[in-house]
Amino acid sequence: MRKSLMAAGIAGLILTCTPAQAASVIDATGDFLPGYIGPHQADLDVTAFSVGYDSANSRFLLSATMAGPIDLNLGGFYVIGVNTGPAVAPGPFAGIGQPNVIFNTVIILRKTGASTANGNPVTPFFNGATVSVVVPLSLLPAAANGFTPMDFGFNIWPRSGAGGVNVISDFAPENANLTAVPEPASWALLLAGFGAAGAALRSRRRMTTLRYA
Asked: How far apart are the first and last CA of the chain?
C-alpha cells in the first residue's frame, strides 16, 4: 500500500513538473482506428502526448493522457516508438494509413509496471488518465544519420493486447513523429521532486523499523 501511495506521489510530481515548453500534440477523442477489433476502453484512446528532453542530465520525459482514467485492472498497454536516426518512411504501419510513424526501437509501458525501453527496465507512473515515464538517453540506441537527441522522433500507440495491427487502438500524433523541446528549469524541479520523494520513503522505512524493533 505504501509503495502504491509513493508511486502515486511521484507521478504527481512528474505531472506537476512536466516541462512547460515540452513538445506536445492533442489527439481527437474517440478516434479509434477503423480496423481496431479490441474493446473501446477510454484508457486506450490517446488525447494528448508530450515529449521533453533534459539535456543537462541526458534523459527524456514522456507523458500521455487518455480519454478516461487508466484502469490497471483492465487489459491493454502502451507502446512508444522512437526513431533515433536509422528508420525512414514508410514505416511498418503504412498498410493502416500511418506510413510516417517510423521507429527503430520501442518503449513498452505496461499497467503491471513491468516496462522496458529498448529492452532495459523503466518505471511508468500512472495518475488518473495520464501515464508518464523518464527514459535516460543511455537506454536508447545511439543517434545516427546526423541525429541528435533533439531530433529523435516519438509516437505512442495503445494496444489492447499482443498481436497484429488490428489490436492497435490509436496513434498520437497521427501519421507523424513528435520531437522534443528542452526546458531545463522545469526538469530541475522534477529531479528535486524525485529526491524529496525518495527521502520521504527512507524516512517512513526508518520509522517503521523503530516502531517494530
From this structure: 21
What is the DSSP-derived secondary structure letter of residue 93? Answer: T
Beta strands in 73-162 (DSSP E): 77-83, 105-110, 115-117, 120-122, 125-127, 130-136, 153-159
Non-local CB neighbours of 182 within 8 Å, separated by 6+ positions: 19, 21, 52, 53, 54, 55, 150
Q: When comparing pLDDT for 196 and 66, which is higher?
A: 66
- pLDDT tens digits, one per residue of 166-192: 999 999 999 999 998 765 544 444 444
Q: Which three cell numbers stand for residue 15?
A: 505531472
> Amino acid identity of 63?
S
What CATH number has the domain bearing residue 30? 2.60.40.1190
Which of 208, 90, 79, 88 lies closest to 154, judged by CA? Answer: 79
**Residue 33 forms part of a structural domain:** yes
Q: Is the pLDDT of residue 66 over 80?
A: yes
Angle, CA of 53, 9 and 207, to the nearest 5°: 125
User: How much is the pLDDT for 174?
Assistant: 97
The model's pTM: 0.79
How far is residue 73's CA from residue 28's CA, in Å, rounded to a whole number? 25
